[in-house]
Amino acid sequence: MDVLLIAGLWLDGSVWDEVAAELRSLGHHPVPLTLPGQGDGSASATLDDQVAAVLAAVDSASGRPMVVGHSAACTLAWLAADARPEKVSKTVLVGGFPTGDGKRYADFFELRDGVMPFPGWAPFEGPDSADLDEETRRAIAAAAIPVPEGVATGVVRLTDERRFEVPVLVVCPEFTPAQARELIDAGDAPELAKVTHLDFADIDSGHWPMHTEPAELARLLAAAAS
Fold first, then answer.
1. Contact 171, 214 (CB under 8 A)
2. Confidence label for 42 from pLDDT (cuts 50, 70 and 90)
């Protein structure tokens, strides 16, 4: 199966390299995406540009692909399910939940000169980053790509309720499946509360399992694709 891999803020498609290699060995066809504004020098990229790139990948995939979003990009994966509910076989959300209609995509941190730079590790202390050693932290920070303002502040538009019929797997890294269920039950992830087929998978990692547990993450994705 084609498995589209969409990384979260400040990351490009190369962050999936180890996961992709494992997925190939397990018989799947991984497609890591590098979206507009992720290292192509285009600080003018918008959320619409990134959505269009994701949809182009869905449309060109063989059969019905599985779409994987990490962190903020869980919303991009969900937008793909909304725009192509008949084409997307499953949506996998790694360490995040989709933003609802009418809300901004990811304006979580300070904007400077038209971009949202990586804010350093202070906001991620605790379970998010507990499994990252200093070398990995330095490597992630050094490779971090500032997010264009037009992406971070873009407004999410959801239009097709058939998205709720697309099966969803929530992969839980820095939180547990029980915590994810509690959050959904409390109304903090209203999009997921309406999903017909919703499953959870635990992974013993922080917020970036593609760095610290790539083989296990690939195993979970392969199981979901199968």
1. no
2. confident
pLDDT for 116-162, tens place per residue? 999 999 999 999 999 999 999 999 999 999 999 999 999 999 999 99
Read off the pLDDT of each residue in 108-112 and give the average, rounded to a whole number: 94
**Domain boundaries of the chain, sorted by first residue:** 19-116+148-168+185-207+220-224
Q: Are strands 90-94 and 2-6 parallel, antiparallel or unpaired?
A: unpaired
Give the pLDDT band of residue 64 (cuts 50, 70, 90): very high
- Map tokens 């959300």 to a residue: 93
Q: Are 55 and 80 in contact (CB under 8 A)?
A: yes
Q: What kind of fold does domain 19-116+148-168+185-207+220-224 have according to CATH?
A: Rossmann fold (3.40.50)
Cα separation, 169 vs 68, in Å, equals: 9
pLDDT tens per residue, range 176-190: 999 999 999 999 999
Token pair of 220 as six digits: 């979970």
pLDDT of residue 41: 66
